[in-house]
Amino acid sequence: MQQRQLGPFSVSAIGLGCMNICHAYGAPVSEQQAERVLLAALDAGVTHFDTAALYGFGTSETLVGKVLSKHRAKFTLASKCGMTGVPNEQGVKVRVIDGRPDTIKATCEAALRRLQTDVIDLYYLHRWDKQVPIEDSVGALAELVRAGKIRSIGLSEVSAGTLRKAHAVHPIAAVQTEYSLWTRNPEIAVLQACRELGTSFVAFSPVARGFLCGPMDVTAFDAKDIRRAMPRFSPENYARNAELLPPYLAIAHEVGCSPAQLAIAWLLHQGEHILPIPGTTSVAHLLDDLGAADVQLSADVLARLDALIHTRTVHGNRYTAQANTEVDTEVF
User: Fold this and answer.
1) Domains and CATH numbers, the chain
2) Which of 25, 55, 179, 248 is catalytic?
3) Is 46 exposed, middle or buried (0-12, 13-18, 19+ CB in 10 A)?
């Protein structure tokens, strides 16, 4: 597979997001199936694996460590802190954003144990805790770099302004944010800021949480599927968004690729500093996604895709009102 720069690392142009193997889109798959997906990715040339303390409240890091630690020299490992599961008064873990330096350091130590490694190549602040100056959180991450616990620092879901403030404290190797044909927020300012600072941009949800793979029945989502709370997947909004799919699928057919490959190839054509990290629980889907690296799109096809699916043609916000308050990205 072609290679791209992820901060100081050269990695496969397409990586693997490891949220799906334990969290987010319904009931988690078996440990055996997660292992099959992780090893198939490694065998197929993926050298960029992305996880987080939040995913399954540590389960994803544990699985990645158990399956891939023996192959540690073959890939670049990314994980995240600043958003974890913390027990509430009933003892049930709930998602908490906490960017205090001591919390970041403690989360890193726990991650190293779960991942069965002595160093994490790229460690992101998963969310900027707006109660803590970004300079303080990044300062804690810089201490982890100096201590040899992590090799580089990333930020997730931040604005260009926050990126610049953080970069002034310590070089930021990568920014990770949702980016696809139907989520264009990074195009406002962050992509340009990344170019200027030499920061890589990692695009999560590159196939629009499955939307760009083809028609789906949103009423049949599992009770634990996070898309149930996402406005774009409400039955009313989805019905309007689904009108975009027939012409989109026609373009994929014309190009000679799958719908998922078309979505990922579009991202790869947006800039050499952009690295998509699709996630999946299926080996077949994984291999299909990776095939996007070989898809060439003409200027005409790129223009038609841009004209078809963009901010003004997609209905519904990507997050709920509450979730929108937790991110720091610019909004159209």
Assistant:
1) 3-210+269-295 (3.20.20.100)
2) 55
3) buried
